[in-house]
Structure formats: C-alpha cells, structure tokens
Amino acid sequence: MSDTKITKELYGLYVQRFGNCPRTPYQAEFYRKWLDLLNECSSNEEAEEKSKENGLYTGGAAAVALDRVVANKQAAQELGWTDVAEFCDEIIGKIKADPYYTFTHSSLWIDLQAKKDGWIRTIEGFQRLFVDFMEYDDARNDAQRALASIAEDAKMLSKPSSDFATLAAMPSFRAMIDCSDEYYREFTDTVSKAIATGYLDTIQWSAESRRSEIDELWDKKDTLTEECRHWYSQEVKKPTVRLSPETADGKYKLIEIE
Amino acid sequence: MDPTIQMMLQGYIDGLASMKITDDAIRQEVEDYKKELMAFGESQNDPATFFPKFQDSGLMGKYMDLSTKITLAAQAAEAPAEKKEKHIATPSEWLEPFRTSYDYIKNYPIRERGLAVYRKLFEIGDRHTNITEFLAEVERENLLWKLCSEDTLGILDITLTGMDPLYKGLTYSTLRNMEAWKASVCDADAYYQQDLFAEDNAKMPARLLQREHYVICLGAHLIAYRGPQGKERIMEMIATGNCPRPEFMSRAAGMVILKQQARRTLEIIKKSLGLTFDDIISDEFLKWKLISTSNVYGLSRAYIQSNPNILDILADTVYNEIIPDISLIDSIKREASLNFGRWRMPEDPEYKKAEEIARQTYQHLPYFKYEDQLNNGSIHVGTGEGFDIKPLAGTSPAK
User: Fold this and answer.
1) Which residue in A174, A223, B306, B378 has the most C-beta neighbors within 10 A?
2) Pair (A74, A9) in one structural domain
3) What is the mean pLDDT of residues A66-77?
4) What is the pTM of this model?
5) Subunit contact A239:B307, Cβ cutoff 8 A
6) Greater confidence, B258 or A56?
7) Exposure string over B303-323, b if 16+ CB within 10 A, otherwise e
8) If you measure CA to CA, which chain B residue comes closest to A72?
9) What are the tens digits of pLDDT across the range B150-165?
C-alpha cells in the first residue's frame, strides 16, 4: 500500500471516529479537511506543504481545544448550566481568534471549573437542607441547632438561584429528594420560614401525661423483682460481625464474635 | 510584608526568573506581574488565609498563563533556522515513551486492564515497520483512548469489590463513573461524560442516603428506649435492688418520651416514604440501619454490631410495645418471658476479631488483594493526554 493511501485510510478512520462523536465536530472537520487535501495531492509531502499554506498544518491543537470546550458546553446545556455554556461560547470565540489561546490562558480551565462548582455546591446545599429538616423534624426539640445548620447550608445555594423557595419549586430539585409530595411541602415551607424568620417551632416533650404510669412503676417495682432477676440472669449476648454478600441479590451473614 | 507570605511569593518570582524570556513585551509583562504580586502580598497579613485569597485574586492563574507564554515564545525563538531532513519515527521509536510508562505501571497488577492495552499496542508495533500503517491499526481499535479508559475501568471495577453491594448510596458513585467511562470514546467525550457524572453524583448518592436517615433516627429512639440506657437499665436497677429514685424516675420518664418520639418517627416515615415498619424490617439493607454499626473492613464490606438477634428485639419492641403503646409495667413484665438475652456493645478487642473474620472471608476479592496499591496514593482514575487526573470517586468508607 502506498504511503498516501495508508495516510488517507488513517485520516478516514479519524474522520469516522470524531464524526460519530457529537463532542468532536472540530477534530472531525480538521481531519476531513486533511483527507480532502490528501485527495487533491499526489503525495503526503505535497499535502504537508500545502497544509502549511492554508493553516491546516497547525490547526490540530486548536481543534482539540475547541472540542474540549464544545464538550463542556454540551454538558452545560444538557444540565441547564447557562452561565457555563455562555462562558464556553466566549472561549470558543477566543480560540477561533487565537488558536493558542488555551495554551497562553490555561487558567481558563480553573475559571470554567469554578463556574461548574457553583451548580454542584447548590445541589449539595439543597440536599443538606433536607437533612437539616429531617433531623429537626424527627423530634423537633432542637430548633437552635437546626436554624444554625439551615443558615449555614443555605449559603451554598447560588445556581440558578440563591433563593431556596425558587429552587424548591424546580422539578430538578424536587427530584433530588426522596419523599412524598406532602412531606416535600412540609420541608420547603419549614425551611423557607426558617430562612425568612430565623424561627422554628419546637415540641416540648414531656412524660407528664403519663405521670401516674411512672409513679405506678416505682410503687410496684418490688413486685417485678422476680421477672427482672430472671431477665438479669440471662446470658449477655456476644457482639456480631455482619458480612455483606458478594452480589447485590445476596443477604448479610452474621457471625458471633468468639 | 509578612515573612511567610513574602517567602511564598518569592517562590513565584524565582520561578519566573529561572525562565528564559526571549520577548521584550513578555519581559515587561513579567515585571508588571511582579509588581502586582508584591502589592497583593503587602495587602495580606494572615498566612493562613493567604493561599485561597491568592487563588481568588486571579494572580495564580496569571502566573500559569505567563509561564506558558514564556515557554511558547522561547520554543518559537529556538526553532532551527535551517530545514533539517525530516525523520519519520518507526512504530518502535514512537512507542518508546509508552514502554517507559508500561515499565512503571507493571509494578501495579491492579492496573492489569490498562496493561493489557499496552501489550496489545506493543504487539501491533512489533508487526509494523510503517508508522502510518501502525497508527491505522491502533486507531481501528481506538487503543490510545483505551489506554486511559480501560485502565480506569479496571481500577473502578476492582474498587467495587471492596464495597458492600447492597449499599447503593456507596456503590452508585463508582457504578455511575464506570458508565461514564464506558460511554466515552475520546478526551472530549470524557469531559462531557464526566460533567454529567459529577452532576448526577452530587444528586443521587445523597438521595439514596436520605431513606436510611429516617431509619437511623427511628433506630436511635428504639435503642434508647429498649437498651442498656432505657428499659434494661430500669430492670437492672430492680434486679439488683440498687434503685435510687431520681435515676429510676428519670429513666422511666425517658422511656415514655422515647416511645412518643419513636411513634412520631414511624408516622413521619409513613408520611414521607409510604413505608411501614414491616417494609423496613423486610428490606435486607434498610433494616440494618436501625442499629448502630461500624465498618470494620474494606469499603463497608463488613460491620461490627451488638448481639445477633438485635433486629428481633427491635421488631418485638415496635410491634408489641411502641405501636400498642403498652404501659411501663407491662413492658417490663413481658421482657422476662422473651428470653432474648441481654445485649452489649462491642469492645475494642472484638473489633480486631471482626476484622480478622472479614479478612478471611474476603481475601479472595480483588480489592483486598490490591488494597495496598489502591491506598498508597499512586493510583488515580483517569490518565491519558489532556485529561485531568481525578482521585478515585466514591471510595470513602461509610462508618
């Protein structure tokens, strides 16, 4: 096989792989142009010389960088990260104007990541607020602790909004919480109120309503001595190691520790 | 300027000074940058908060940009004036850096899937003398990308064997990451897939953990009510005759309140998840969240906990005491007839024994064969040109 024919085959393979991947339009185009050039020329050397004239020779690095940004943009669009997608558009424009832009401005990747982090932190903050609510709602006896956690975690919210109620109304945020619609409403109402007012209701747990029952236990404790001694004479069970199954359809195995 | 801050900034200045600057415009940029850097240093007085502020200021990014600019300009200036005859690498020469990588990586059998791709690459290299023919064959199988993806998938696959497979809140992250890598066909595709993964990974494991959180709350009430700090303590006081009234009354009142709280938690679980206690106790994973356990081996592969019939005791407590809301006297009377035995929490030497039992059980699993390699800090997920190296995701053992 002649060198040109092999090179055409290789570039054809690149065109195929990058053309089939929606993330790599610029590399697909780059190799397609090379393939066209090879088809126009009688040798690899001729194609290489011509590529230096039309800019194709040094175009690979920009194509790779552009595709990287395109990939980031596509993910951002799919996830609704609007500012990330807009930032990607800006970078694409800059790379088109200066093919080496990503090399001379490598800090742009840090800026890009920082923009993404805002969205991720909001997700994490929203979920933490639900855990704050669950912990508070379980006994509703420590409002101060709950308020402090809610205030702290609400600071994590920023994208697409820093307003808890706005986020809570969005289907994508609703889908992050594993509970009924009724309980979700309680969660959003309670946390919204806590953020707005800095106040949460508490339950004053008391045994007073069962006072007579407690007194009766004290008064009759001597009649329970036999039962309690029988219980007290029972063996103290040894702790156990619980071994997980090897596959997800298995069951745990318990082994008493001797 | 604070001397520690000055020392840190001097490192950047020295870094720039060590570079060969061939362009006057860049030289001026460097001088301006140094002034900006020192002015920033003067404005800071706390070394502890300096670094994050330095990052936020954009000066660190500017340093990276400037360094790259200097290097590129120097390379351009050093380009040979005369055109030399072009040497076209043979497959063997082209593969030389890959052999260096392979020689290093082969010390880590955990990376066998990646190593297999290297060997395939070398085998193809041995069959060709023409670099283009060689590259075409490599491209047909997308082997250069597989060097990265197969290596990562192999490590993730092995990591998974160290995890409790029923613990979806833990395994989800690794399984989802594997999906992302399997779906990727090149660097750019991996960036796309990893963003989708990062977003999903922020959402789903936490969502999966929410369900167990309710059950942990319920378990805490049940154990406090029924265990050595609750009913058992009262029975011990009666049995031994060492029964000071204040403690007795306080523990009895505690039992009353804990029963109310457990009833409330059961209602919340029903309202929020539609689950009854029957549903919880019949769920092979969820039911164990009722009790306090500690991971003793691998990534939540094995746990140590109190007595083996603990779940029977807690189920009995819910069905026969909490739900029917029986009196304290009835609760104590019935306890003696149950013959569940008394319980205690594990003690220190038992943790070692539990770990040994787990070690013997799981030593055949790949994660435990290669645990040292995974934990020595040299293994990362994601290698390959241009692609960020990411630490292993989802491997934090849940306690």
Assistant:
1) B306
2) yes
3) 97
4) 0.84
5) yes
6) B258
7) bbbbbbbbbebbbbbbeebbe
8) B192
9) 999 999 999 999 999 9
ipTM for the complex? 0.91
Of A149, A168, A197, the position where a domain reaches its end is A197
**DSSP letter at B398?**
P
Asked if residue A237 belongs to a domain, the reply is: yes
Q: Is residue A234 part of a domain?
A: yes
Instruction: Please name the amino acid found at residue B260.
Output: Q
The minimum CA-CA distance between B263 and chain A, rounded to whole Å, is 10
In a domain, A112, yes or no: no
In this structure, are residues A80 and A33 in contact, taking their beta carbons and an 8 Å threshold? Answer: no
**Hey, is the C-beta of A182 within 8 angstroms of any chain B C-beta?**
yes
For B303, the closest of A71, A227, A242 (CB atoms) is A242
Could you tell me if B312 lies within 8 Å of chain A, comparing CB atoms? no
pLDDT value, residue B71:
72
Do A88 and A157 share a domain, yes or no? no
pLDDT interval class at B202 (50, 70, 90): very high
Domain count, chain A: 3
Query: In Å, how far are B163, B289, B299, B349 from B294, measured between CA atoms?
Result: 14, 11, 11, 14
pLDDT band at B67 (very low <50, low <70, confident <90, very high): confident
Residues A192 and A216 placed together within one structural domain of the fold:
no
Residue in chain B nearest A231 by alpha carbon:
B336
What is the share, in percent, of chain A residues with pLDDT greater than 90?
A: 84
Do residue B166 and residue A252 have CB atoms under 8 angstroms apart? yes
Residue in A with minimal Cα distance to B167 = A248
- Residue A100 and residue A69 share a domain: yes
